């Protein structure tokens, strides 16, 4: 009998999580302004420059200054981000969660993203980059801007109507977890 009631509880719990996701998405959309939307579009698009530019800049700086530690840490940051991107793509194909605006017509996106929603790829990759850089260089002036950037990119995905908050949360956990698990690569 316990096995028969458990799926019902799981469905009710999933339904309440989905309802929570929907409420937040509708609330975010109702409070959009052109100025905020422009800012969050800019931040959302910054992911590709940060996840490529940060390790590339580190590597170039390491080559120019002949700093082996900087080059090795660039490899660590790039590897953490790349593995996170691959894991995110695989999870998206397995889970196949529809985008918020496909599942609920009350959710109006700023633009229509393609593919699947869970987890947020922008969030997972920026969080991997931010976590790896912060582990490699644990100084407040590295950690604070790194996580401010990654957190803002993550928030932008829900604000723009293309990811549920749970997609963003899962992406953040995936990215941070990957960077932590790859920390053996960093050069002390």
Automatic annotation (TrEMBL):
Q: Where in the cell is it found?
A: Cell membrane
Query: What would you give as a GO molecular function for this chain, any one?
Result: hydrolase activity
**CDD domains, alphabetically?**
PAP2_like
A single GO cellular-component term from the record reads: plasma membrane
Q: Which SUPFAM superfamilies match?
A: Acid phosphatase/Vanadium-dependent haloperoxidase (SSF48317)
What are the record keywords, sorted? Cell membrane, Hydrolase, Membrane, Transmembrane, Transmembrane helix
- The keyword RNA-binding is assigned to this record: no
- Which residue intervals define the domain Phosphatidic acid phosphatase type 2/haloperoxidase in the entry? 74-183
**What does the record say about its membrane topology?**
Multi-pass membrane protein
Name the InterPro entries on file.
PAP2/HPO (IPR000326), PAP2/HPO_sf (IPR036938)
Annotated PANTHER family: DECAPRENYLPHOSPHORYL-5-PHOSPHORIBOSE PHOSPHATASE RV3807C-RELATED, SPHINGOSINE-1-PHOSPHATE PHOSPHOHYDROLASE
Q: Specify the protein name.
A: Phosphatase PAP2 family protein
